[in-house]
Amino acid sequence: MSNETEARRHKNVVYFERGELDYVLQTALSTAASDSAAIGEVFYAASRIDEKERDLQSWIREWNAVGKHVEGIAQRCLAKGHKVSAREAFLRAFNYYRIATYLVRVDDPSYREAVAHFRDCFQQAIALFDPPFEKIEIECDGAKLPGYFFKADKSDEPRPTILFFAGGESFCEEVYIWFGPAALRRGYNLLAFDLPGQGITALEGLHFRPDVEVPVGAAIDYLTSRPDVDAEKIVASGVSYGGYVTMRCAAHDNRLAAVSASTPLIDFQKLINENAPWLAKVPAFAGNAAVKMLGRIDPFAMVVYEKFLVSCGVSKPSDATTALADWTVDVQQIGCQVLCMVGAGEHESFQWQARTAYEQLKVPGKQLRVFEVADGADAHCQANNIPLGTQEVFDFFDEVLAD
Question: Fewest C-beta atoms under 10 Å: which of 30, 167, 296, 392?
């Protein structure tokens, strides 16, 4: 097994030597732009984490401690009638609790409780917006996928609406802290929901599926039924796994007016094989042993891979790559305008996906945006500079929808 157990996601290291931890830290700092983190709180938590001892509990303990402290602030503000302050503090507490959960193993008895706790903080926050945001469910193939509708304003005037899809390990609540304020400031409604395999849907028997256009199609059906949605101005954006989702849906559903993807993933099996070649090489009979061995080498990466296998609905690493065989996009079937984005600090495999997607697109008006280190946005999904990434996305959509 290679010692390089994780794909590179960025070049510039801010604090942690381990790339995965530093990536999450940079993402946390970037969410300060949506009032979902405070830089002082983030650095305090980071300063108390022992990464060199590869101590998972240190990460979980310190982020939970900051989350608990900020949740206390939220409760005190709410009790005194300071609704804006309470809303902001609940959002920060949600974010910190979610970051802690990032390294809680999925089979840990505390995992579901931790998820329920950060979701409760988020829902207390959204109840304090004016108008309050809506909890919704997308019905698909007999399942109900949890989500939220973030309304641009109080009126029922039809507005442009964006579907946003985050990474495979993400929860729909995280979509708000990535794209919510940027969408609402520009007059867009925002819909976020957990696709099969995301959130805790895998624990409920729903796993990643190649034909993501089916649940997304159900979401578009839902949007077109609402009077406050302009059915001619529905767009989609995705990051990481969400980049595959948006590209695949654009190739299958002509109701999308435009899409953006960072990174536009068009061959998921190729991506995984290049980023984690050991997954395919491990013999099937040795699958569980390989994950345990990984835990001794890099416990942080082990948790990420464990969750990936659960989301795929498989127990053996070798089965994961087989499950991804049909995860492809026929780019030439896409008929709407597309913005392809990638960070210069990402692994070469991501850069290949972005450039190949862009080259294969046949639509006029296609765009390719490569974020350099000097942009402060070279990381995967532009996680280290979310405001710049969202600016590029919404400027693109504004120009397309104005035509």
Answer: 296
Distance between CA atoms of 162 and 176, rounded to whole angstroms? 12
Domain's final residue, options 126, 155, 170: 126
Beta strands 159-165 and 229-239, pairing class: parallel
Asked whether the beta carbons of 188 and 236 are under 8 A apart, the reply is no
Cα 175 to Cα 86, 150, 228, 238, 242, distances in angstroms: 20, 10, 20, 10, 11
What's the angle, vertex CA 258, arms to CA 257 and CA 261, rounded to 5? Answer: 150
CB 140 within 8 A of CB 209: no
31 & 103 share domain: yes
Instruction: Residue 346: give the domain boundaries.
Output: 134-267+327-402
252 within domain boundaries: yes
User: Which residues contact residue 285 at a Cβ distance below 8 angstroms, ignoring those fewer than 6 apart?
Assistant: none
Assess whether 335 and 360 both reside in one domain.
Answer: yes
DSSP 291-305: HHHHHHH-HHHHHHH
The Cα–Cα gap between 166 and 218 comes to 18
Residues 249 and 383 in one domain: yes
pLDDT tens-digit map of 343-371: 999 999 999 999 999 999 999 999 999 99
Is 121 in the same domain as 143? no
Q: What is the pLDDT of residues 172-217, one digit of tens each?
A: 999 999 999 999 999 999 999 999 999 999 999 999 999 999 999 9
Task: Say which residue the tokens 């790339």 belong to.
Answer: 19
Q: How far is residue 74's CA from residue 124's CA, in Å, rounded to a whole number?
A: 10
108 and 92 both lie in a single domain: yes
Q: 263: cis peptide before it, omega within 30°?
A: yes
Give the containing element (helix H, strand E) for 255.
none
Which residues pair with residue 87 across a beta bridge?
Answer: none
Q: Could you tell me if 55 and 168 lie in one domain?
A: no
Would you call 103 helix, strand, or coil by DSSP? coil
Short-list 213, 272, 214, CA closest to 248: 213
